[in-house]
Amino acid sequence: MGSPMYSIPGSAAAVPEPPTGAAAAHGPQSTEARTVSEVLAQSQAGAVMDELDRDLVGLTPIKARIRDIAALLVIDKLRMNLGLSAQAPSLHMSFTGNPGTGKTTVALRMAEILFRLGYVRKGHLVAVTRDDLVGQYIGHTAPKTKEVLKRAMGGVLFIDEAYYLYRPENERDYGQEAIEILLQVMETQRDDLVVILAGYKDRMDTFFRSNPGMSSRIAHHLDFPDYAPAELLRIADKLLEQHSYRFAPGARETFEEYLTARIRQPHFANARSVRNALDRARLRQASRLFADQDRRFTAEDLTTIAASDIRASRVFQTAAAPSQS
Ligand SMILES: Nc1ncnc2c1ncn2[C@@H]1O[C@H](COP(=O)(O)OP(=O)(O)O)[C@@H](O)[C@H]1O
Ligand SMILES: [Mg+2]
Predict the structure, then answer these.
(1) Dihedral (Cα; 275, 280, 284, 287), 10-degree rounding
(2) Is the shortest distance between the CB of 101 and ligand 1 below 6 Å?
(3) Which one of 255, 287, 298, 314 has the largest count of C-beta atoms within 10 Å of its C-beta?
(4) Which helix (H) or strand (E) holds 263?
(5) pLDDT reported for residue 5
């Protein structure tokens, strides 16, 4: 490849102070690390990985792949410390899977791990779709794409439904221009920018078949499975706990019934549907309590989702009809 057509300056001036402890990744001690545990301790990447294991339900294959990638980076750092390799590994990835399977959530954690291990300077995530990259008129796409790349430099650029960049039916689609700029930057600035392409698996496969240049730059393909009903239920527990709510006796079973019905209905979106359902249950709980204008509520009243708060969902009334509620 010749000299880069597009060079996106990393805006060093805008770099925020790294969180305490994370600075070690770029700090002087890190060059002295000679063991895996030294690198992990100095970077605190181990803590982020443990958190990922703990906070996220299921996702066993994904967690294993992330550990593999982290291992590669840690060993790479040890090699660098001995002056063995200077070339940054390519870390661009594709995250495929159905909506609500945790792609965005995991991408955020990945950005943090890459930052801790000193692979990127800032560790932030910029999430975009085609409309953020591609302009409507001639000459608009390059500046838009470059602006996004500039913002993402030092972190992760997460392109949701990336395949929409490629529209073969449209002969001179501006998406192609965005793809070409991305390809350049993914090659020339891969030591400070990781691109993650996300979306449905089948569409991404088609996209890669038509864009071998893009395909060849993606080092890691992570495929996010749908959650099993038991996992969705555990995700519900976690989400409630995070917001200081809990199921009343029997309400968890009602929610399980709810899930069984909801999974069969259109637009089911895994963990996101769980979250939406719980948001609506909280609304119903609030209305229920609101009606009791003179009662002094206990903490238990205020934190408890009753079976009736779930049972009132339209999913139960029209178990066979299309509904999202
Ligand atoms: N494994 C999981 N454990 C707990 N919560 C999860 C898990 N996966 C997803 N969620 C939650 O579900 C919601 C949707 O996840 P998200 O990452 O946006 O999915 P995607 O990007 O694949 O559509 C988020 O609120 C997230 O916190
Ligand atoms: Mg998402």
Answers:
(1) 110
(2) yes
(3) 255
(4) helix 251-264
(5) 41
